[in-house]
Design goal:
Helix content is about 45%, strand content about 15%. The protein has about 1450 residues and is an alpha+beta fold. Strands 14-33-32-31-15-27-30-29-28-34 form a ten-stranded mixed sheet, sandwiched between helices. Strands 17-16-26-25-24-23-22-21-20 form a nine-stranded antiparallel sheet, sandwiched between helices. Strand 32, helix 34 and strand 33 (about 1085) form a beta-alpha-beta unit.
């Protein structure tokens, strides 16, 4: 259909060809006119026309090129299932091999078995796998059908209204109306929200697993709308990027009829699969549909990996093929030689129709192919099916292990890759993330520094060290609980709950009013009492105990802010008082935290614009509490709180005069403190219930009595735990975040006054800028203030240069503040705290307007949008004034130190790859036992490739003098080969080696081709810590170690930045923590706690490897042993490919008689108990060394199979040699003997005996006789001319048969039994010792394990009071942990003092290339040390480092002062 002349589509094509002559971007320098007039490439952009009356023709034309919303995740259709599945199965070369044999057997001259019989094994295997694949695909089809048939409201142009249609009918350009609690069917651009602020709240748990709410905003210009959105009035064209799988990246612009543009980004996009919460109605236009949505593009599903055993098995199958080739060659040559002995053609040699006989050579070729058909069972076709079934059984027991279940998150282990379970038992290197993996990702506020003054918060530290125990019998605790904890724990009239809190948290339907609720469903059960309802809101994160010294200064800051409202003269903006106020305002405002309430339904707290800068006095709160008749309760509580920690009383004489009742009430309102110093989150916060259905103001709402015992507590839903920790810390000092809207944010001050700041702009955090800023208008002064928080390495570079200040006193003050803050930052980092700097900046109205114009144009740009936004951010975030810094503790997960210690005892190298700063990572490494106090730690920090090369050479040369590489430790059954160390020193007295390296040094290593030296150095290290690593560097390190060292690697992480590392390793493990589920979705296994890794590897990994490895070896043995019986018979039948065993008996032998015992063995066998494996981690080394399945074990089993087959064939042959029995009478004893031998061989391999094992073995044995008797009794003419009729029945009446069947298996298995007895008696294998210990009674077993561990534990490092005898490397943890003397005991401390005083400490612990230093040469300065005898930094060392820092900051590149030597 032709388009009209003034059609939008035609206009669009013209604009693309000619370029817009009037672009809104011409007025800004950020977007030049040349860029604006460029020709757009429609192949790289998507154009969306709305489906309404105005653009209907354009929409019809364009929408044809975009796919619909129907999804199909199935692999097959009804017509393609059979051919496609067979095609995929024949990709496995073993199936092709057996298919070739079936084809050969159909050739008359090479037919060995009946044609149908030859097809049977292959057909059964193909059918089983086909059924499994079909059932899996049928489940996917049903799921797709349910999704596609879900209903949603779609705008119908003909009826001018929304009509319910299935998801599959959604098209790009359609208008979609989504209601509360509905799932979004496609990626839609948000154009309308029932929220007055234009906000739509999403829950993205289905997409990334994050349970905290996300905010999405209506596109600019559409937020101020009437009651409902009118699709017919939408006359804009949308241009955006092509579909991609980046969940957090989206850019485009909206073209208006006047040719102006409005930019939008990911904040305006609602992704498919997310659930609308807290919003009654949302309307948007579909941008991506179906398989082009970001959710579908990220849905890769489980990945297929080949395990190490499978790779080893393929090699051994080639050996089996070689054996088969040799046997067939012998048969072909033997047949030709045997035929050559006849002077005439024997009667069984039949000529062709012309009377001609085949040449001997051609007969040999035919016989070679015939022998392949006869001996085909040598290649175990059933092994593949058995392995699949065994792995399913292993995964079942993994899923049902209660030790791997986490009650807090109600989640168990997930196995996403079913084919690599055995690799869990062969791991040699573990690469772990730090934050959220080793730590809880629960950020706890610990310390802060404001204007150079440090506040240690010691009471808060005591609270964290000694967690409180609940005492339900204590009346005082009951009162404390009623006032301190969220209402969902209180059995109040308005919030009554069941005793077990089984009801999940709900977010119910809401109306278009400021108070809105929402419901949240959990797919993994219900929350227990200990589980917080909101992410990052556990009691340990919320309950911050304020510092007493800081409380007094907060009083002055509150009064200073009050003086601003009274119009009195204010102190200078750089004063300590004003800085404290700004510091806490920044903590409260500079974030993206949402405010809600904990009652049911949960209420998102907003304040109407009319309540801006509304003041609320303590008297009004007192009146409110009097109405609620809570004065007696508040008195009873306040009497238990110490007066010196009550903020209301700390206001002192300057506070308004009030009687005791008022003091009690204010104590309850503003937040008091528990008897043990712990901060008590108040249940009732003024402003918690703000607004009503009629839009009542805050004061009006406070006048109204509360419906229950108390008002709801404020809940903070943050996107990161850092933000939540800072908001909770500010709340502890009564700077409370009350509400947040896109335009305003309200803060309640300590004295009860609420300040509403106009939110002018928000610059969100990103990994490049490493900071976040908000631009607000101060409600009291009217100034435009920029509050910024971010990493110290970034913020310190953006501070205003003190030298540019004209006031000398102010210049000194700024320099002193920056220097002292930097000192405190170093102190925090050494204590393992995560540091953030807080800064501010005041800008003029004109500067802000100019900057806002630039920002708007950058947001509207489609090309180079990210670069332009970065440029605008850099224009704003500079010349900042430092307010202070915070230290947040990311608490170590429970069981991490024990897990890492056990993994290292197991011979596993543990590397930590983190993006955190070096000092924090090193401290965590010591806390989790990755580094020990006696380790020699080398730290390399350099950006120069030549310097890096020199440092690596020097370090290698020095390490080689004292240490042998760690690699030989796994060479001999897990024993460490420490005897190879030089004779000048003993391995027992040498500390282990650790390596700390940063991201810049890694860049130098990769760019300078220094990987070989780096890996050689790490070979001497038991631990490696890589700091400031990017996600790409993490994956590069994993690939480097995996490929160059040919080792088995495992990566574990919890965040999206760990995905590349997880996918690069042989096994990837995701932790379902608080950073979403992207790591889990890309992993092979998913666990909820790092400590679960201990049992997963040491127990299940060992079992899975041991079971599967021995089962594979047994399968090779079984098939070779049985096939050799047919081979030996060929020497007595003229190599004619005849058999002495019935064909059906041969088929049944592998399919039924010997198939179940290996399966049970592979699923249930336990060579060593779980308790012993956990107590003796070094037993894991057997899997690392592949002791159960390697080249030697394979060939030993082959030799054993040949020997047993010789015995099983020739003893019956010699017994019946001169008799006149027929061929099947001779073959039946051989078949029975081989079955008995193979089953007894399996019994000797089993380490665990249960009823199931016994029943399966006995049942297989009895099944053979039952089937044989039935078959021989009924098979009269089933195998003419030789029929096995009544053969077994006759054998049962012959005593020779019983005697042969008893003695032959004994003779066949006697050598194996003898060797196993010798090994158990004399061999010093760790596994055999552990198996003996397992058989002891529990008391003796525990004693033996204790003795074992005492013998295996290395000798302690002797006293260093005689350093001259052993020139040992020093212990550099002193430099890192100078502020934590508790980390070492007094005796060790004495040795350190002696070592330092004797001048024997080397300087190789920190090798740092300072870019500010002009000398980049590498040298080792001996005799220098940085720490004095008291384990603190030497003054000279610090001052020198500080001088370097000052010089660097003057040159614009800040460097933290290092407590290390520069090389």
């Amino acid at each position: 259909m032709a388009l009209s002349v003034d059609s939008s589509w035609l206009r669009w094509q013209w604009r693309v060809r000619e370029g817009s002559a009037q672009s809104a971007s011409e007025a800004t320098p950020l977007l030049s006119a040349e860029k604006a007039r460029r020709s757009y490439n429609l192949r790289r952009q998507r154009v969306v026309f709305p489906n309404n009356s105005t653009f209907h023709q354009d929409w019809e034309k364009v929408s044809r090129s975009y796919p619909g919303n129907r999804i199909h995740t199935t692999k097959y259709t009804l017509f393609t299932f059979l051919p496609q599945n067979l095609f995929e199965q024949f990709h496995r070369w073993a199936n092709l091999y057996f298919l070739l044999l079936v084809i050969l057997n159909w050739i008359p001259s090479m037919e060995v078995f009946h044609r149908e019989i030859t097809m049977l094994p292959l057909a059964i295997v193909l059918f089983i796998i086909m059924v499994k694949d079909g059932l899996e695909d049928l489940k996917r089809h049903r799921f797709d059908k349910a999704i596609n048939c879900s209903n949603i409201r779609i705008y119908e142009r003909k009826v001018h209204n929304y009509v319910r249609k299935p998801w599959k009918d959604v098209r790009v350009g359609d208008f979609i109306q989504v209601q509360c609690n509905e799932i979004i069917p496609a990626d839609i651009l948000l154009l309308f929200s029932s929220d007055p602020s234009g906000i739509c709240h999403l829950e993205t748990a289905n997409l990334d697993g994050e349970t905290n709410l996300k905010q999405r905003r209506v596109v600019k210009g559409f937020s101020q709308q009437e009651v409902q959105f009118q699709p017919e009035r939408f006359c804009n064209t949308i241009v955006c990027e092509k579909p991609n799988n980046h969940l957090n990246r989206f850019k485009g612009y909206m073209e208006h009829p006047d040719q102006t543009r409005t930019g939008f980004n990911s904040e305006n996009l609602l992704l498919r699969g997310c659930t609308v919460r807290n919003t009654e109605v949302a309307v948007g236009i579909v941008i991506y549909a179906g398989h082009e949505t970001k959710a579908m593009l990220n849905n890769s599903g489980p990945r297929y990996k080949r395990s190490k055993i499978e790779r080893r098995m393929n090699t051994d199958i080639f050996f089996c093929i070689g054996i088969l080739f040799l046997m067939c060659l012998i048969g072909a040559v033997g047949h030709s030689l045997w035929n050559g002995t006849f002077e005439e053609h024997p009667p069984f040699d039949v000529p062709d129709t012309n009377g001609n006989f085949l040449p001997l050579a051609l007969e040999g070729v035919y016989m070679f192919l015939t022998m392949i058909i006869l001996l085909q069972v040598l290649i175990p076709i059933s092994l593949y099916v058995s392995i699949e079934l065994v792995k399913l059984g292993q995964v079942f027991f993994l899923h049902n292990d209660l030790d791997l279940y986490d009650e807090e998150t109600d989640s168990s282990i997930q196995c996403r890759a079913l084919n690599i379970t055995e690799d869990l038992g062969q791991i040699q290197y573990i690469f772990s993330d730090k934050t959220g993996t080793l730590t809880e990702n629960k950020m706890v506020f610990r310390r802060c520094t404001i204007m150079g003054s440090e506040y240690s918060h010691q009471e808060n530290a005591k609270r964290l060290e000694t967690p409180k125990e609940l005492d339900s019998d204590s009346e005082e605790w009951t009162q404390y609980q009623c006032l301190s904890f969220p209402a969902r724990w209180v059995q109040g009239p308005a919030t009554m709950r069941g005793q077990k809190s089984a009801q999940p948290l709900r977010r119910c339907q809401s109306a278009r009013v400021p108070i809105q609720g929402h419901s949240r469903q959990r797919s993994m059960g219900h929350y227990e009492n200990s589980q917080p309802a909101v992410a990052f809101s556990s009691s340990i994160e919320k309950d911050v105990t304020p510092d007493k010294n800081l409380l007094t200064k907060v009083r002055d800051a509150a009064l200073w802010l009050e003086s601003l409202s009274d119009g009195r003269a204010t102190k200078p903006s750089f004063s300590t008082t004003s800085s404290i106020a700004d510091f806490f305002l920044a903590l409260t405002i500079c974030n993206s935290v949402m405010v809600s309430t904990t009652t049911e339904p949960r209420q998102r707290v907003t304040i109407p614009p009319s309540t801006k800068a509304l003041g609320m006095s303590l008297e009004k709160i007192q009146q409110l509490f009097q109405r609620l008749k809570l004065s007696s309760l508040s008195q009873s509580f306040s009497s238990t709180a110490p007066s010196d920690t009550d903020l209301g009383e700390s206001l002192g004489a300057n506070a308004p005069t009030m009687d005791s009742d008022e003091k009690d009430d204010s104590s309850v309102c503003s937040g008091g403190y528990s008897t043990d110093g712990g901060y008590r989150s108040s249940v009732w916060d003024q402003g918690d219930i703000l607004g009503s259905g009629s839009g009542a103001s805050l004061e009006e709402e406070l006048e109204t009595p509360a419906p229950g015992l108390a008002g709801p507590e404020l809940c903070y839903e943050a996107e990161s735990p850092d933000e939540a920790a800072l908001v909770h810390a500010a709340h502890a000092y009564s700077f409370t975040l009350v509400s947040r809207t896109p335009e305003q944010v309200t803060v309640r001050l300590p004295q009860g006054t609420c300040l509403t700041f106009d939110l002018l702009c928000t610059l969100g955090f990103d990994s490049v800028r490493k900071r976040m800023s908000v631009v607000v208008r101060h409600p009291l002064t009217g100034e435009i203030v920029v509050y910024t928080k971010g990493a110290d390495s970034v913020i310190m570079d953006l501070l205003e240069d003190p030298a540019s200040v004209t006031d000398i006193d102010l210049e000194k003050k700024l320099k002193k503040t920056q220097a002292r803050t930097q000192k405190h930052l170093d102190l925090y980092a050494r204590d393992g705290l995560r540091t953030l700097c807080i800064a501010k900046k005041v800008i003029s109205e004109e500067d802000f307007r100019r900057w806002a114009s630039f920002r708007h144009e950058a947001e509207a740009s489609l090309e180079n949008r990210d670069e332009l936004l970065m440029e605008t951010a850099q224009h704003l975030e500079n010349r900042l004034t430092l307010l202070g810094a915070t230290g947040i503790e990311d608490r170590l997960q429970e069981g991490v130190p024990d897990t890492i210690a056990a993994l290292r005892e197991a011979g596993i190298q543990v590397w930590v790859l983190t993006g955190d700063k070096q000092e924090t990572a090193v401290n965590i490494a010591y806390s989790c036992r990755l580094l020990d106090q006696t380790d020699t730690v080398y730290t390399i920090n350099t950006e120069n490739q030549e310097t890096c090369d020199s440092i690596l050479n020097c370090t290698l040369e020095e390490v080689k003098q004292f240490h042998e590489p760690q690699k030989p430790d796994r060479k001999l059954f897990g024993f460490r080969l420490r005897s190879k160390t030089p004779s000048t020193t003993s391995a027992a007295v040498l500390p282990e080696v650790g390596l700390v390296i940063d991201g810049k040094t890694l860049n130098a290593i990769f760019l300078g081709k220094l990987e070989k030296k780096f890996l050689e150095l790490t070979g001497y290290c038991r631990s490696v810590l890589c700091c400031r690593c990017t996600p790409l560097q993490k994956s590069m390190i994993v690939k480097l170690v995996r490929d160059k060292l040919s080792v088995m690697t495992l990566s574990i992480g919890d965040g999206a930045n760990d995905v590349s590392m997880i996918q690069a390793a042989d096994i990837g493990i995701g932790i379902s923590g608080q950073e979403g589920m992207q790591a889990v979705m890309s992993s092979d296994f998913a666990i909820s706690r790092f400590r679960h890794l201990k049992k997963l590897l040491l127990v299940h990994g060992h079992w899975c490897y041991s079971r599967l490895a021995r089962m594979v070896v047994y399968y090779f043995y079984k098939n070779v042993c049985y096939v050799n019986l047919l081979f030996w018979y060929q020497f007595f039948c003229g190599f004619s490919a005849s058999t002495m065993i019935d064909y059906w008996q041969m088929i049944f032998f592998n399919l039924f008689f010997t198939s179940l015992p290996p399966l049970i063995f592979g699923i249930l066998d336990k060579d060593i108990s779980a308790e012993t494996l956990l107590a003796l981690p070094e037993l894991y080394k057997s899997g690392q060394n592949s002791e159960c399945y390697n080249l030697s074990t394979f060939w030993i089993s082959m030799l054993d199979a040949f020997y047993q087959s010789l015995i099983c064939f020739f003893i019956p042959y010699l017994t019946y040699k001169d008799s006149d029995i027929d061929v099947f009478t001779f073959g039946t004893p051989i078949n029975t003997i081989s079955l008995t031998t193979i089953l007894l061989h399996q019994a000797m391999e089993m380490k665990t005996w249960t009823i199931i094992h016994g029943l399966i073995l006995l049942g297989s044995f009895l099944m053979y006789f039952a089937v044989s008797l039935l078959y021989n009794a009924t098979c009269v003419t089933c195998n003419s001319p030789t029929n096995p009729y009544w053969v077994m029945e006759v054998q049962f009446s012959d005593l020779t048969f019983y005697l042969v069947c008893f003695l032959t298996p004994v003779a066949a298995l006697l050598p194996r039994y003898f060797i196993l007895s010798l090994r158990g008696t004399y061999e010093k294998s760790l596994l055999l010792k552990a198996q003996k210990i397992d058989q002891l009674p529990r008391d003796k077993r525990d004693l033996e394990i204790q003795n074992w561990r005492s013998r295996q534990r290395p000798a302690p490092v002797p006293s260093m009071s005689q350093p001259s005898q052993h020139p040992m490397p020093h212990r550099p943890e002193q430099a890192f942990r100078a502020s934590t003397p508790k980390s070492s005991s007094p005796p060790k401390r004495k040795h350190i003092e002696d070592w330092v005083l004797h001048g024997q400490r080397g300087s190789r612990e920190h090798m740092t290339d300072d870019p500010c230093s002009g000398d980049s040469s590498a040298k080792l300065s001996s005799g220098e040390h940085l720490l004095g005898p008291n384990r603190t930094m030497a003054p000279g060392a610090y001052s020198g480092g500080q001088t370097n820092m000052s010089r660097c900051s003057q040159r614009g590149s800040h460097r933290r002062s290092q407590s290390s030597l520069t090389i």
